[in-house]
Every structure is written in C-alpha cells, then in structure tokens.
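Changelog note: in this version the structure field was regenerated for every chain. One regenerated record is shown below for reference.
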Amino acid sequence: MNGAKRALIALVEKLWDKYAVSSRELEAERSQTLGELNEFLVKLGYVS
C-alpha cells in the first residue's frame, strides 16, 4: 500500500509539473489575446 501511495504522489507531481502555469503567464497571455482581439474589432469597425 505504501508503494502505491508513493506511485500516486509521483504521478500527481509529474502532472502538476507538466500542466502548472503561473498566474503571471496566464495574465500575459490574456493581455496579448485581448490586444489582438481589440485590433480585429477596430479593423471590423466594431470599436473606434
């Protein structure tokens, strides 16, 4: 049972390392995406 717990913990840590994203990275990507969206909306005439 102890080995199974360690294996499960190792699996969760591996997934955490693979998929963890910092809030700063998310915010930077969000800002970039909002900027691109705003450019498209201006070109389409929805935003002046």
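Spot check on this record: The longest helix spans residues 23-44. Helices lie at 2-19, 23-44.
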